[in-house]
Prior knowledge:
The structure is a single chain. The chain is mostly helical. 73% of the residues lie in helices and 0% in strands. It is built from eleven helices and no strands. The chain has helices at residues 11-18, 23-35, 39-47, 51-70, 80-100, 103-106, 112-116, 121-143, 148-158, 163-170, 175-195. Helix 9 packs across helix 11 (175-195). It is globular and about 50 Å long. The termini are far apart. The model is unreliable at 1-6 and 106-110 (pLDDT under 50).
Amino acid sequence: MNxxxxxxxxxxxxxxxxxxxxxxxxxxEEELFNRFAYFIREGITKHALSEDESFNAYSDTLLAAFExxxxxxxxxxxxxxxxxxxxxxxxxVDLIRKKTTNKNSVHQAxxxxxxxxxxxxxxxxxxxxxxxxxxxxxLREKLGQLEEKCRxxxxxxxxxxxxxxxxxxxxxxxxxxVKTSRLRCLERLRKLYKVE
Length: 196
């Protein structure tokens, strides 16, 4: 028990539970998320990231750690805190590099929307409708490949439901859990697009 009177898992207990499935695994994921959520603040203050960038770096950190723990790549040579902080620091540095280097803009193709502006209004309208329809059909197909809860979460999010509302509708514990789950679902969806 900690000073607030609530139970706190040891690193070893968390690692063991993360390697299982079911409610113990979820509980450990939440415990880890909440225990080190203050890293997000550090990303903002130490690395000058926006809150969303820092949250994304933190979520990516946890996803990488969960995967490494499940695949037995985590050797427990350091505490979970030290291990997670190192991953988080690297994710933040990667974001900073991405923002400050010119590499991103050099290799980006010109946006289709920029080309659309060169067309007449009627041609632009027709082309835009075709693009929208093709994009929607492709998105619908990819969403169909996700598991049901992931698909529902993304559909609610696409309909502008708040994380709090989604938590209530899909019976997640908190809005933060919804946000982390959404990032996982979006990552799965992104991978489905990469497969093509």
